[in-house]
Amino acid sequence: MTSSATSQQPASGEGSLGHVIFIAAAAAMGGFLFGYDSSVISGAVTGIQHHFGVGSGETALVVSVALLGSAVGAMGAGWLADRIGRIRVMQIAAVLFAISGVGSMFPPNIFVLGVWRVVGGVAIGMASVIAPAYIAEVAPPAVRGRLASFQQGAIVLGIFISQLVNYALNEGAGGNPNDHIAGIQAWQWMLGVETVPALIYFLMSYAIPESPRFLISVGRMDRAREVLRDVEGQDSDPDARIAEIQQVMASEHKASLSDLLGGRAGLQTIVWIGIGASVFQQFVGINVIFYYSSLLWQSVGINASNSLLISVSTSLVNIVGTVIAIALVDRIGRRPLALAGSAGMAVALGVAAWAFSYRHGTGTTATLPNTQATVALVAAHVFVLCFAFSWGVVVWVLLGEMFPNKIRALALSVAASAQWIANWAITVSFPTMSDWNLSATYVIYACFALLSIPFVYFFIKETKGRTLESMG
């Protein structure tokens, strides 16, 4: 624990803000791939179903299996980052992304496609951990929230670009994902295009410095001093910052799972809070909108082309909400944004549940009355907006900064892994739950949004403006 004299970092880093923004943006390219890979499947899923002749059960497994890979990647990323560095982990993730893209483009059967989805999932999990941890470690405290928000900004941009690419490829193939472009089916192009941003991510990783905290941990003091001066400004005192970081590290050792243990519940309270935030972020059902957008809207009578357009519009709203969060997260704090978002999501999900209760029929014969269809579309967009300006950004910011230095990378890995498992549970269950009762499914999501309000109020502490060394 640092003294109060060192707990507030001077804003000397403002002079190097442009350089720090570039570093954060480059690191956040992993988030772009995370968003692209997570969402691209929504446009390809109907093409996959027809190409391999599979039903909703197999489809749910192919969509969700990547998330189990993500849980594995997230769990291992923190351990790996503490041993080989943050930049090397980014590069490994980029290579796995590229391999997954090529493999998913040409699968001989549904099983092999699932394997390549797992490989991509491992890369997603690694990127989901390393970007917020790295950005939090290089960013000056005065702007850390905004820079950490780049992760979610990149995620939503990746989602939007994937939806836009899906729509363009689908239209280029004549409105059918199983028709061909240059001899290859449109859905295959959708999955394969991610190799391009994967290559960009790999190259950009060579243009940014290693985390100063990792450099200090391996004894590279001269390089750590250079990086700190670059990111915190020429008027900063890198020697004082190194001394502060070393003071925190003095009694530390390489974190292991035993370091997360404590208390009556098995894990330290702060670790459980991180897990809880991660689980709530997923249990409101946000990724149903992105993973199953096309199927969701087709299940209430909207045709394939229009359902893809709706996916594009919700992705645009997602970007708008994220920009709002980036502008506000360091001004009004993490907790107020999370509380406002929870309330908005609960209302929007409740309204959507009411609208979906008027659905008649199932599958391709399903319909909604015009009034309820309009209400459902508006509610879905409001839900995405409320999530984007709150939980979408706040959770990633908190996970990058809420844990004590001693366990930060490993605890973030555990929390992110829990997030991917929760994501998997929602994703694999939605097709069956939707067939059972779409309206009731959204009532359940609304209940989780409501429960997130007391969770934030009683358990989440504000981290705005604090140095990482003052977190415990």
TrEMBL record:
PANTHER family named among the record's database cross-references: PROTON MYO-INOSITOL COTRANSPORTER
Stretches that traverse the bilayer: 17-36, 60-80, 92-110, 116-135, 147-169, 189-208, 270-293, 308-329, 336-356, 376-398, 410-430, 442-460
Keyword Membrane appears in the UniProt entry: yes
Keywords annotated in UniProt: Cell membrane, Membrane, Transmembrane, Transmembrane helix, Transport
CDD domains: MFS_XylE_like (cd17359)
Segments forming domain Major facilitator superfamily (MFS) profile: 23-464
Membrane-topology annotation of the record: Multi-pass membrane protein
SUPFAM superfamilies membership: MFS general substrate transporter (SSF103473)
Record Gene3D superfamilies: MFS general substrate transporter like domains
InterPro entries per UniProt: MFS_dom (IPR020846), MFS_sugar_transport-like (IPR005828), MFS_trans_sf (IPR036259), Myo-inositol_Transporter (IPR050814), Sugar/inositol_transpt (IPR003663), Sugar_transporter_CS (IPR005829), XylE-like (IPR047984)
Pfam families linked: Sugar_tr
Localization annotation: Cell membrane
Organism this protein belongs to: Streptacidiphilus cavernicola
Family per record: Belongs to the major facilitator superfamily. Sugar transporter (TC 2.A.1.1) family.
Protein's UniProt name: Sugar porter family MFS transporter
